[in-house]
Design brief:
two-stranded antiparallel ribbon; 4 helices
Length: 134
Amino acid sequence: MDVKPTRQALADFCQHLDQLRRLLADPQMQAALEKAAVAGRHGDPLDASLIELLRLCKVTYDADDGIPPLTILLWHLDFPYSTARMQLPIRTNGHPNAQVYVCPTDHCDRLWVRAPGKTIPTCWLQNARLRERI
């Protein structure tokens, strides 16, 4: 279980980390979640911490199923979760028709398209706002 997380796995984890922090009030669950966050921040394996979190949530995890622990955790907590890749805005005359934001440290593949009036989200692994992709 010592596999480095993919850039997309880190993006998925980052996107939901703040909500998970607010939802999981139990100190043991918070400790397991923060252990995963520290691992993710350094690009280290985070599955072991997420599997521990699943155990604390009384959810059985079987690695042979081939489903990542984060996906099972989000399903268990009824998160609206999709593994579909985001479609980027179409360029017109060489310019994007929307602002696209990415990981502030280029650590993962998180993408966010800004809608008018929306606040730029935070990268919860790096505790910094996403940066505009140029």
